[in-house]
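step: validate -> pass
step: tokenize input -> pass
step: predict -> running
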Amino acid sequence: MNTTPVLTQDAVSTRTIFNPATGEPVGEAPVHTVTDLQHAVDNALAAQPAWAALGHEARSAALLKAADAIEAHAEELAQLLSREQGKPLNGPNARFEVGACAAWLRAAAGTPLKTETLVDDGETRAELHYRPIGVVGAIGPWNWPMMITVWQVAPALRMGNAVVVKPSEYTPLSVISLVETINEALPGGLLAVVSGGRDVGEALASHPGIGKVMFTGSTATGKAIIKSSADTVKRLTLELGGNDAGIVLPDADPKAIAEGLFWGAFINTGQTCAALKRLYVHEDIYDAVCEELTTVAKAMPMGNGLDENNVLGPLQNKAQYDIVANLVETAKESGARVLVGGNPITDQPGYFYPTTLVADIDNDNPLVTEEQFGPALPIIRYSTIDEVVEKANALDVGLGASVWSSDLAAARKVAARIQAGTVWINKHGAVDPRIPFGGAKQSGYGLEFGAEGLKALGVPQVING
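step: predict -> pass
step: emit ->
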């Protein structure tokens, strides 16, 4: 599988991508320009009307063929993803991510979207339809580069749009190969990758030929996209930063929930927007939860993602490594208690930071209030439900949250008080292609997945008469 995106001209330069686990080169990524972006948009504008005219059934059939193509190339895609992003092949990581790409394509193809009759009283008949937007710009992150690209691309294509993808500069090769694979099932020009720098992203967000931008990434970048998109009044779906709270109620069984808590926090080595990033545990079971979590954490092997035994990998880049290391060091200096980890790994190559649990930490500590986006979890003690709800809601983000309890009714009552787009019970971060997903507060706006996610990739039109 080559890594050349479909554009009318080749990129004039390339950039070497390195494995964050070893420092070894993975491959050469094209460095596209704003001119390349213009070619991609022109091709997309030319290809989109015929694609839209095919209708939902034919477009869905193409998405199913794309899912088949991904499965046919699954292992090579997973190997490339592991080398470029750093995540291990096994566990909820590279092979899991590639499998999710096929699953989300099939879900987008199979989700029904019927015309809604709004009024039909004998005098007035009004129907709600969703028409294609045109060209969608998809700007993706480096943590789940393939899966989140499919989250953006699959519904956009299903709804009759063309798509221009701008991947993260850290993980372009994975996305280029993924798009190349999907393109085995699509007409030419409909889906393209433009692998460039910040100038390309800014040009995409402001381009008059692009009718909607989908973005997953930091809140700061999301705000910049909002500003760049304003003059052309683009539609936006923004899935921005989270700092998800998990609340363990006093009736929970520490041993039973420990592994679920661990993977809620440490999936993809903590590099997940909707990961559990601050854990609140009732004082009655605080020590027991800390003990059980420590036992689980010590049993999870970390290392090179290509080693079949590992389930945790490196931080994807040095900047993120430094953020995690600095936040943990600040927590240690404040007097917080490190249960496991807490010291940078210096005896091997790569951006490895050990799995770290930090107890007896104040709620205003930076490790709690700032999104660490890595393998370090603060565990905060609380006494009352009112207290913990106030703490969970105190930040200006609200992507996800979770409540852990043996009493579902009690858990649901607490969940209803949390300011977050999704609140899971006895699990965390369990996204589902059938269930809408989106953030509250400064974690963004717009919904993805399910019928609501499809509607977000269309222009609503009422036919009245």
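step: describe -> The first strand starts at residue 14 and ends at 18.
step: cleanup -> pass
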